[in-house]
Amino acid sequence: DAKTTQPPSMDCAEGRAANLPCNHSTISGNEYVYWYRQIHSQGPQYIIHGLKNNETNEMASLIITEDRKSSTLILPHATLRDTAVYYCIVRETSGSRLTFGEGTQLTVNP
Amino acid sequence: SQTIHQWPATLVQPVGSPLSLECTVEGTSNPNLYWYRQAAGRGLQLLFYSVGIGQISSEVPQNLSASRPQDRQFILSSKKLLLSDSGFYLCAWSWTSLGTFFGQGTRLTVV
């Protein structure tokens, strides 16, 4: 699975958009970009995933660059409950496992 | 809808005692199943994964073992716990193009 690079921490004001970047310059053509988050002392929560096109669901939007070497997870209106570690992972759809990096600690401030 | 059950939520065990953590998945057939561990302040480490009954792959050598006696049941075991086995243990499942979904975890403290 391709390696990803994320900033270790970010801050965001409550109500503002949180934009979390991820670099995955070695991603291959059959690898998807997945985003998860882990709130303290809970299991990771699936957020969104995509291959080439931008994706949106009720939780977030995923913007993938045309060359697929980087992506951005957007939380459009961050709340205090969005404070968590956010993990960007790339893997094949049929891949048998997720490899977690260190993620980004997002802190939403009131 | 699919759900994953993992228990117990917390566990305190003495060094040298056995361990058995159980995980079951409902609402899907033939899922891939996983056991992860997260030490305090660290990232998630994949311990075992299974693509079918009786099929277990180990990612790291360790004091633990896993078994899958039924399609939707995954068990993590140890014959004798070590202090270093303390951590947050997470069971997860996945199936084809869906994401991977995690249980709420078991916080194990070995004393």
Can you describe what's shown?
The complex is a heterodimer of chains A (110) and B (111). Chain A is mainly β and 110 residues long. In chain A, 0% of the residues lie in helices and 47% in strands. Chain A is built from no helices and nine strands. Chain A has strands at 9-13, 18-23, 31-38, 45-50, 55-56, 61-64, 70-75, 84-92, 104-109. Chain A has a five-stranded mixed sheet with strand order 1-9-8-3-4, with no helix packed on it. A four-stranded antiparallel sheet of chain A has the order 2-7-6-5, with no helix packed on it. Chain A is globular, with a radius of gyration of 13 Å. With 111 residues, chain B is an all-beta fold. In chain B, 0% of the residues lie in helices and 59% in strands. Chain B is built from no helices and eleven strands. Chain B has strands spanning 3-7, 10-13, 19-26, 32-38, 44-52, 55-58, 65-70, 73-78, 87-94, 100-102, 106-110. In chain B, strands 2, 4, 5, 6, 9, 10 and 11 form a seven-stranded mixed sheet that branches.
